[in-house]
Amino acid sequence: CSVLRGGFDMEQNTKQSERRKQELIATALKLFYENGYEKTSIREILKEVGGEVGMFYHYFKSKDEIFELAIEYYLNEYIQKFSEVSKNSSLSFKQSLESLIALQSETIRKYKIGWSNKIHWSMASAIYKKTLQCLIPYIEDLINKALKNKEIIIRTPNVSIHELTLFLVYGISGILHEKPLLEITQMELTKKQQNIRNLLMQFFIWEEE
Known about the structure:
By secondary structure, this protein is an all-alpha fold. Helix content is 76%, strand content 3%. Strands 1-2 form a two-stranded antiparallel sheet. The longest helix is centred in the first third of the chain and has 34 residues, at 2-35.
């Protein structure tokens, strides 16, 4: 019985430790969000949760590490949706792209409603960069699956799929972020999305063409 009790206590301690770590990450996200990276210190994060410096270094190596984890924490829901689209075998390549474009539109809408001018520029910049990095493997996977299923043909032969993916991800992002998101009207966004569709037609030949 004592062995079983010891195992139970260890499991409880592990869960409690993980909850504490997540609390630190969520608190750090709030402070980075409001004050930016430079003006948020480890001591300020600990002050919010009532912790000591030793506790912080038990979970994290540095402020850089918790900053990266805070961004991932923020993007988790967004990336999960991209993952669901990428893994949905019932969607064609075109349907997957349309789903991703619609998701991008929803993300911009949420940005305008929820972020407004509240988010610090350093956090916005880090989230933007991390989002693009996270998208790359999903888009590359979609292209590879479409090629394998013979849904598409790439118009330029012998092109690197990875480099094509980078070109598309950063190029489309450049179109969407040509001006601050808060200044983009719904009409402008719709036009940008149509232009993106037209540009994609220049890269791929769909099987029905």
